[in-house]
Amino acid sequence: MPTVTVDGEKAFEVEAGKKLVLAIEDAGIDIMHKCGGNARCTTCRVEVLAGEVPPPEAAETERLAREADLAPNIRLSCQIRVEDDVWVAVLQRSSVTGVPAGTRPQD
Fold it and tell me: Which coenzymes or cofactors are required (predicted)?
């Protein structure tokens, strides 16, 4: 099973194929996700610090292209299915913004 490390604060195993946003949330880590996992809002952005993630599909690529000055290692966690070990930084947290996380994304 792949290991996900978040911000160096927690590492946990996850079933291969699980959406990264769900793996992070299920591990008890605060992460924003306002659009339900549909690649519309970008609130679930993560910075991929190390490891391998599948390449982005069209919906993610198109949505991230509308944002200014994003590094190429910024991804939408709702669009990543974990297949290998990965280390990420969560970029938006409900506890910091004061905004509820949103509807749990579909698997």
Answer: [2Fe-2S] cluster
Q: Is 84 a domain residue?
A: yes
Please give the span between the terminal C-alpha atoms of the chain, in angstroms, as a whole number.
Answer: 18
Neighbours of 9 (CB within 10 A): 10
Average pLDDT of adjacent 10-residue blocks, the chain of 107 residues: 94 97 96 91 96 96 93 96 98 89 86
Domain count, the chain: 1
Tell me if 42 is assigned to some domain: yes
* 42 neighbors 59 (Cβ within 8 angstroms): no
Question: Is 39 in contact with 58 (CB distance < 8 Å)?
Answer: no
Residue 6 falls in which region: left (phi positive, over 0), alpha (psi -120 to 50) or beta: beta
What's 54's domain CATH number?
Answer: 3.10.20.30
The answer as to whether 29 is a domain residue is yes
Which region, left, alpha or beta, applies to residue 12 given φ > 0 means left and ψ of -120 to 50 means alpha?
Answer: beta
